[in-house]
Write a structure and sequence with these properties.
single chain; 131 residues; alpha+beta; five-stranded antiparallel β-sheet; three-stranded antiparallel β-sheet; 8 strands; 27% strand; globular
């Protein structure tokens, strides 16, 4: 984590997977360091960091596995295997402005997570579903 704190950068977000084996650390300049996360999660973060965008937070739902929410500083977010309710709420909030942060409760949800992959931007008229 020392490398993320160089040249005045500050750690602004730390997230752990439900198992505790994986984690992601993000600094205020959009740099991040991931350990023991699915390659697809790292690729998602790289995609959302293109063209000067910066990752601001990542969350791992309690369902575990290949699930996550990633948000960048432009309000663009990507959800994989999160609950429908969470994705819909993020869509609603992005219509009123932009999503700036997302977090997951550490205990398993009482309902299952959706298996749908979702990505959306704050300018979308409705959340976009990708399978």
């Amino acid at each position: 984590m020392g490398q993320l704190s160089q040249k005045g950068a500050k750690i602004v977000w730390v997230a752990f997977t439900p198992s505790g084996a994986g984690w992601s650390v993000v600094n205020d300049q959009g740099a991040y360091l991931n350990r023991n996360l699915p390659a697809e999660c790292h690729a998602t973060m790289a995609d959302l960091s293109k063209n000067g965008a910066k990752i601001v937070c990542v969350a791992f739902p309690p369902s575990g596995g290949n699930s996550r929410s990633v948000v960048n500083d432009r309000g663009i977010y990507f959800n994989r295997n999160v609950s429908d309710e969470c994705h819909e709420k993020m869509g609603d909030l992005s219509q009123a402005g932009r999503v700036i942060c997302v977090a997951s409760h550490p205990r398993p949800a009482t309902t299952g997570a959706s298996s749908t992959t979702r990505a959306s931007t704050s300018t979308a008229t409705s959340p976009t579903k990708h399978t």
